[in-house]
Specification:
Blueprint (H helix, E strand, L loop, with lengths): L1 H6 L8 E3 L5 H17 L1 E2 L5 H12 L20 H18 L5 E3 L6 H20 L3 H15 L2 E22 L1 H12 L3 E6 L3 E2 L4 H14 L3 H11 L2 E21 L4 E3 L4 E2 L6 E2 L2 E9 H6 L4 H5 L10 H7 L14 E11 L7 E8 L7 E7 L6 E4 L2 E3 L2 E5 L1 H27 L2 E4 L6 H4 L17 E4 L5 H19 L18 H11 L1 H28 L1 H7 L21 E3 L8 H18 L7 H14 L26 H53 L7 H9 L3 H38 L10
Antiparallel strand pairs: 1-14, 2-8, 3-20, 4-7, 4-15, 5-7, 6-7, 8-11, 9-10, 11-12, 12-13, 13-14, 16-17, 18-19
Helix pairs in contact: 3-12, 3-13, 4-6, 4-13, 4-17, 13-15, 17-18, 19-20, 21-23
Length: 768
């Protein structure tokens, strides 16, 4: 059971279960209940809509009409009206959606900065999933194709780990400890062991063997005894062949074929989420038994399920004729019919919850429940219906709208072609009395006819041409198909001859009126299927936060970490697909004119640089430029501009310099005064000492003492270094004061010149 849980990570939580062979009886009641709900729902494999879808498919491939096999010597041409309109519609819709940077965006109707930050993260995730990690066009193209052709396009979205096996590797000499580690990795699903050899004794390197032999000989052992002892001491090892398994997280987008989609009869669109409100939704698929075992389902249960033999429905048959396959099954013969059903039901207790239930086998006769898992209310099926009808999701596609007209055009065109054959190869009447009839058969250029009549005795019977009646009718029928579908060859190009009789304005108005239908289809698609797909992606991330964190590792911003636990799939969503966007030329003219208005309004403060940037982004997207960030810089990402220059900054700076010079001058004056005081005190003290020594000498003279008069004179007359420094400092201060006075005079002159320049100049006299 551990192996199964590790291989099927989606069921590693509460509210989920994978059934084993011992629990098959417990699953019978659930299988009976769910299969009954499926059989009472609309399965297109057995519904009346299947014939309609099959006819649309045949019309797209221009298959022969019913009873065409009975026609002899008649045209079997089939017109391409369905093919033409389906392909043009698909191209227009895909181009419209792919040219938008954000088709839909989460935009909470609140001023809460936290919710706005969450919405920004969710929008970046949608862009990352749909455009960067996957091909946006590859997702849209089959989805839109199914909707245009059948009137129902279904996209199934899943989020899981995709196992990928690496190259075969061989480990030699694996001991018991390493074998246990490999076995544990196998149980965890990290590796697949392909094969292993028989056990053998590990080998000792030759250098070590030689050393052991030398030591053994010194101890008196024979080589045979040494070999025997080494064999007992060496462990058993074996060689293992294995493959590494990497399980990378991935979003999978699958366009479900109409014959495989299952939905309850009351299904309608939810105007809030854009998804489908239905008691039951699901789809059928054919999966190889080996793949189901790898996903963790019980092998014993799968062995009891009958292998699928033939799909048998008409749509699948038409699809398979392109490759000569009518069963649409693989050639390996191991595929099982699997049903993935989403519904709200009571399983583990009396309370009803949303579950995903996986069944296998024939849904009408004793299917088997493989597993179930509790899910959210967002069933991962995004539906596209081009022309919706009230109260149901079963509307019309472009093929549904033009199929009757294509049959009519086909029959009328055949009559026209048959008439052309009569015109180019008319009926021949031969006079057998004049011409040998055998010679008149199979006439070809240069053939000789034996006849007695110079004209050959042959007359031609040509029926009247029907082109004058048929061609206007075909043109009228073509316009009718354009009107009901909104697409056609006439709507993507203009006949040059038409411009001789109509004005450019009339052509533009007609083009805009004809594109109204396709614009309505695009807006409806954005508000329903595409809107729900964005919500489903966020919901799957919320349900699998650890998987989402690993998948979105490239989006992690150290300054703004992803808060997956706070994401909300129910957040308000705005649609960026608007009416009028099909006419790119007209839209570009409007945007350019509006940009000029914005540039003029910037002086009044009514328009900010961010508003200008938004308009430039719209212009770039209208031109089909997706990498707008490389062409235009978002003003919100720029650093704040420096403050405007103060016109009085010069005066302020001059005053600051003056104040600093004055402070420095006063500080130096205080220092000089203090130093001068110390010098004066030293001089006074020296005089007092000298006077004291003279007095003492005079007293000593009275007692016949000798006095060194020269030393006293030298001591009095010497110049102290401190006094010299003080005098030099005083002279330097005087010079600095003179320089400051000169600088002040220069500053005053500069201020006068600046004031003179700021005064208004007198008007110049008019030039004569």
């Amino acid at each position: 059971m551990d192996k199964k849980k590790n291989n099927k990570n989606a069921f590693d939580k509460m509210g989920a279960k994978i059934f084993t062979a011992n629990e098959i009886e417990d699953a019978k009641d659930l299988a009976h209940k769910v299969s009954g709900m499926v059989n009472n729902s609309i399965s297109f494999q057995t519904s009346t809509l299947l014939n309609q879808y099959e006819n649309n498919f045949k019309g797209y491939y221009r298959k022969p009409l019913p009873n065409d096999d009975k026609l002899r010597f008649k045209s079997k041409h089939v017109t391409s009206d369905i093919q033409e309109r389906v392909d043009i519609a698909r191209g227009k819709i895909v181009r419209t959606f792919d040219s938008q940077k954000e088709v839909v965006s989460f935009a909470p109707l609140t001023s809460d900065p936290t919710k706005k930050a969450i919405a920004k993260q969710q929008n970046s995730v949608i862009k990352h999933v749909l455009r960067e990690k996957n091909s946006h066009v590859a997702i849209l193209s089959p989805w839109v194709m199914s909707g245009c052709l059948f009137g129902l396009g279904v996209l199934h979205i899943s989020f899981d780990r995709i196992p990928e096996e690496g190259k075969l590797q061989v480990l030699k000499g694996v001991n018991d400890e390493a074998l246990v580690e490999l076995t544990n990795r196998k149980k965890k699903g990290e590796i697949v062991i392909e094969a292993h050899s028989d056990d053998y004794k590990a080998e000792i390197p030759e250098e070590m063997r030689a050393q052991l032999m030398a030591v053994a000989e010194q101890q008196g052992f024979t080589p045979e005894q040494v070999e025997e002892q080494m064999a007992l001491m060496l462990p058993d090892v074996r060689d293992i062949s294995y493959r590494e398994i990497k399980r990378r997280p991935a979003f999978c987008f699958k366009s479900v074929t109409v014959e495989d989609f299952i939905v309850s009869k009351e299904a309608i669109f939810n105007p809030h989420t854009g998804g489908v409100d239905a008691r039951l939704q699901g789809h059928r698929s054919y999966v190889p038994k080996s793949e189901l075992i790898e996903q963790g389902y019980d092998a014993d249960i799968l062995d009891e399920i009958e292998i699928a033999s033939d799909r048998g429905d008409g749509v699948t048959t038409v699809r398979g004729t392109k490759i000569g396959d009518t069963t649409a099954l693989s050639d390996f013969g191991d595929e099982i019919e699997v049903f993935e059903i989403y519904t709200k039901i009571a399983i583990e207790n009396k309370n009803r919850h949303h579950y995903r239930i996986t069944l296998a086998g024939n849904i009408t006769s004793a299917p088997v429940v493989l597993a179930y898992e509790e899910v959210s209310k967002f069933y991962p099926y995004a539906v596209f219906v081009p022309f919706q009808t009230d109260g149901t999701i079963f509307g019309q596609g472009f093929a549904d709208r033009v199929a009757p007209e294509q049959n009519l055009s086909t029959k009328v065109t055949r009559e026209y072609i048959n008439n052309l054959h009569y015109q180019s190869d008319p009926i021949k009447a031969v006079n057998t009395d004049l011409t040998i009839s055998d010679d008149a058969l199979n006439i070809f250029p240069g053939k000789v006819i034996r006849t007695s009549d110079p004209t050959g005795g042959i007359s031609f019977i040509t029926p009247p041409s029907n082109g004058a009646v048929i061609l206007p009718f075909l043109d009228m029928n073509n316009k009718r198909m354009n009107a009901v579908s909104g697409v056609g060859a006439d709507m993507i190009s203009t006949d040059i001859s038409d411009k001789q009789d109509v004005t450019a304005t009339a052509v533009l108005e007609q083009k805009q009126a004809q594109e109204l239908l396709i614009e309505q289809v695009c807006r409806s698609f954005a508000d329903t299927g595409y809107r729900f797909a964005a919500k489903a992606i966020i919901d799957l991330c919320v349900q699998n936060p650890e998987l989402a964190a690993e998948y979105l590792s490239n989006l992690k911003n150290p300054d703004e970490p992803l808060t997956i636990d706070k994401w909300d799939a129910d957040m308000d969503v705005s649609t960026n697909i608007t009416f009028g966007m099909m006419d790119r030329t007209y839209k570009n003219q409007v945007l350019m004119q509006f940009l000029q208005v914005q540039q003029g309004a910037m002086q009044t403060g009514a328009v900010s640089p961010q508003n200008i940037y938004s308009t430039l982004v719209d212009i770039a997207e209208n031109f089909g430029i997706m990498d707008v960030a490389a062409k235009v810089t978002d003003p919100s990402t720029l650093p704040p501009p420096p403050p405007p220059a103060d016109p009085n900054a010069g005066l302020v700076e001059i005053e600051k310099v003056k104040a600093e010079l004055k402070n420095q001058q006063e500080e130096r004056k205080r220092e000089f005064d203090a130093y001068k005081l110390r010098v004066d005190n030293d001089l006074e003290r020296d005089r007092m000492i000298q006077d004291l020594q003279i007095k003492m000498a005079e007293l000593l003279g009275k007692y016949q003492s000798e006095i060194n008069v020269a030393a006293l004179q030298a001591d009095q007359n010497k110049q102290r270094a401190d006094v010299d420094w003080a005098i030099a400092q005083q002279e330097a201060d005087n010079q600095r004061k003179q320089q400051e006075a000169q600088q002040a005079q220069l500053n005053q002159q500069a201020m006068q010149q600046m004031a003179a320049q700021q005064q208004p100049q007198p008007p110049m006299p008019p030039q004569m």
